[in-house]
Specification:
single chain; 292 residues; alpha/beta; Rossmann fold; 2 domains; 12 strands; globular
Length: 292
């Protein structure tokens, strides 16, 4: 058996998930095995990998092995016979849709360390399941990216204005409690300014640093945010973000809790209800599509 693999994809964690999915899809089509790659702690602000970490630091090796057996692909952890381009694997992963994507994501479970942290913080974040999760996509890298790449897209509101995002979220929040997912150290403006505005419109805010003080690094912090959002009844995000798109697909795959997913990058003053299970990146398609 020949095993294909790549060293790493220099990108955010949810993009790395797509690359691994593409690696499995490619291996299956070629009748080859897969070498599970390591992951990178990718800094969006610095646009580079900070360090490499083992797959098992973030995800369950047992569950990915179960997935490999289910789809009929043999895996190795330390053997690569043929190297493939991780960017091409990312593209291949994005082409996998519907049930095939959902089955993969259902097996991409958090590591024991992240699972233990989750067990301790979920009761604090969701004392009665009415906390809404808001993707506060106002990090420095998004301030640089969105005006340059997304501003001209018609019939979308890809603003990085924190007041507009939070104001939209307030309209459909189940209660006055919101949990912000983001890279806290990189947001503009800072937390104090965001908190002051949210509180001025009647919201009580919570951040990951309020409930977890462990130094987890970029990748594990991202997955912890992801898992918290996966347990939400209401999530508000943007379909221009891989985090939100993978989250919607993972929610469809796992059905951990009832689910209402809204998009703050729709036009108008209210967020749009998402219906595509994370398969589309434009607001028009994501809010009109019958779920797969």
């Amino acid at each position: 058996m020949e095993f294909i693999g790549f060293k790493e994809l220099n990108a955010g964690l949810n993009n790395q998930k797509f690359a691994i999915l593409g690696l499995f899809a490619t291996a299956k089509s070629l009748g080859k095995g897969v070498s599970i790659p390591g992951l990178v702690d990718f800094s969006p602000e610095q646009k580079r990998s900070v360090k490499s970490i083992p797959f098992g630091d973030v995800f369950s090796c047992e569950h990915i092995s179960e997935y490999a057996a289910q789809v009929g692909v043999e895996i190795q952890w330390d053997r690569i016979d043929t190297y493939v381009d991780p960017a091409e694997m990312f593209k291949a992963g994005n082409l996998v849709e519907g049930r095939e994507r959902f089955v993969f994501l259902a097996h991409l479970r958090p590591s024991l360390e992240i699972g233990n942290i989750l067990a301790s913080i979920l009761p604090v974040i969701y004392p009665d399941k009415h906390t809404s999760v808001v993707q506060l996509r106002i990090e420095k890298d998004w301030h640089a990216y969105a005006p340059r790449r997304l501003a001209e897209i018609k019939n979308e509101d890809n603003s990085v204005d924190y007041k507009r995002i939070i104001g939209k979220a307030a309209q459909i929040s189940q209660s006055d409690r919101v949990f912000f997912t983001c890279d806290e150290q990189s947001i503009e403006p800072g937390r104090d300014v965001v908190d002051a505005y949210a509180q001025s419109i009647g919201l009580k805010t919570m951040w990951k640093s309020d409930v977890c003080t462990a130094d987890l690094g970029y990748a594990r912090n991202t997955e912890l945010d992801f898992q918290v959002a996966l347990h939400a009844d209401v999530f508000i995000g943007t379909c221009r973000s891989t985090f939100a798109n993978v989250l919607a697909s993972a929610k469809a795959a796992t059905a951990i809790a009832p689910w209402r997913h809204y998009l703050f990058n729709g036009v108008g003053d209210a967020p749009a209800l998402r219906t595509d299970n994370g398969l589309l990146v434009n607001v028009g398609g994501a809010t009109r599509t019958t779920p797969v």
